[in-house]
Amino acid sequence: MANVETTTLTLAPYDRAAELKAFDLTKSGVQGLVEAGIQHVPRIFINQSETIQKASTFFELPVIDLGSTDRASMVEKIRAASENIGFFQVVNHGIPLSVMNEMLQGVRSFHEQDVETRKRFYTRDTSKAVIYNSNFDLYNSPSANWRDTFLSFMAPSPPPPEELPEVCRDIQIEYSNQVLKLGSLLFRLLSEALGLKPNYLGDIGCDKWLAFLGHCYPACPQPDLTMGGTKHTDAGFLTVLLQDEIGGLQILHQNQWIDVPPTPGALVINIGDLFQMISNDKLKSVEHRVVANERGPRVSVACFFSSSPAPPTKVYGPIKELVSDDNPPKYRETTAHDYIRYSFSKGFDGVPRLLHLKL
C-alpha cells in the first residue's frame, strides 16, 4: 500500500544544546532560515527515528454532513469514525468558506510579515497573550520539527484584541468564535454517540476552553530528512483542523501511515487523549504527523478544546455511565490542566502520553 523511504545518516558529534539555543535566540524560527536562503537542513532538525512514508493511494476519511436532517445517521457515523479511526471530516459545519480562506491567509500573513515584527511576539512564556516560537518542545524533543507556530487561548477568557497580532486580529477572533459554536454542536453529537444526554460533555466543560494555533511549515530544501510535525496524539478533548491545499497530514491507521488530502470546505476533526480517557478507550486518540514538503509554506489552524493556562480544579476520569464491572476504569483521574502541562513538558518523544494515566 505504501512506499517507504528511509534515510540513514551518521551525524558527527556536535553541541546540540548550543545549536538549539543559537537557533532559538534568532527569534525568527524556521521561516527565518528559509528567508536566509538555507540550502541544507540544520542538524537539530534531522529526524532519524521516523521513516518518511508516502501512501500510494489516498484513504478517504469519513465525511459527515452536519447539515443533514437525519440526526441518527449523523450520530452513528460520528460514533463509528471516532471509535475506529479517531478522525473524520465535517462539511456544512456553519463556518463560511470565505472565513476559512481569510483565516488561512491571516496565518500566512503573520508568518511572512517582517522578521522584526514577528520577533516582538517570540516567547516561551506561556502566560503571554500570544506565544510565537518554533517547536514548543525545542529543548526536550529528539529532533526539531520544520514548523513555526503562534498560539493564543481564545476561550473562555480571550486576550484583549489589541494584544493579538494586528495582521490577523479580526479574523482570528471571528474564526475562533465560529469554532466555539461548532465545538458545542460536535460535543452534543458525541455525547449522543456515547449514549449520553446531548448536553453531557458540554456540562462537564469539554467545550469551554479553546486554544488557537496558527502553524506554518515553510518549504523545506530536504524534506526526506525532517518532519513538519513528529508523530503524536493531541492532548486535549477534541481538535478542529483547518488545512490549506498543500496537504502533508498523515494518520496512523492499521499500522500504516495514510495521507489525509485536503477537502475543499471541510474541516478535519480528531479525538484527543483526554477524550479517549474519559470515554474509557471507547473513542480513540490516534497518532498523526505532518511530513515536510518542498512546496510551501503550508499553513494550518489547529483549534484545541483542552484546558486553560490557569489551573482549574475540575477533575476528569472515565465517565461513570461508561464503566461497569465488566468494563472497569482504565485510567486514573486528573485535571485537564495537569495533563496538558505534563504533555507540554514531555514533548513529542514518541512515547504515548496516555500511559501516564493508565491504571
Automatic annotation (TrEMBL):
This is Fe2OG dioxygenase domain-containing protein. PANTHER family: OS03G0690500 PROTEIN (PTHR10209:SF859), OXIDOREDUCTASE, 2OG-FE II OXYGENASE FAMILY PROTEIN (PTHR10209). Gene3D superfamilies: B-lactam Antibiotic, Isopenicillin N Synthase, Chain. It comes from the Eukaryota. One of its GO terms (molecular function) is metal ion binding. Belongs to the iron/ascorbate-dependent oxidoreductase family. Keywords: Iron, Metal-binding, Oxidoreductase, Vitamin C. The keyword Transport does not apply. Residues 208-307 form the Fe2OG dioxygenase domain. The keyword Metal-binding applies.
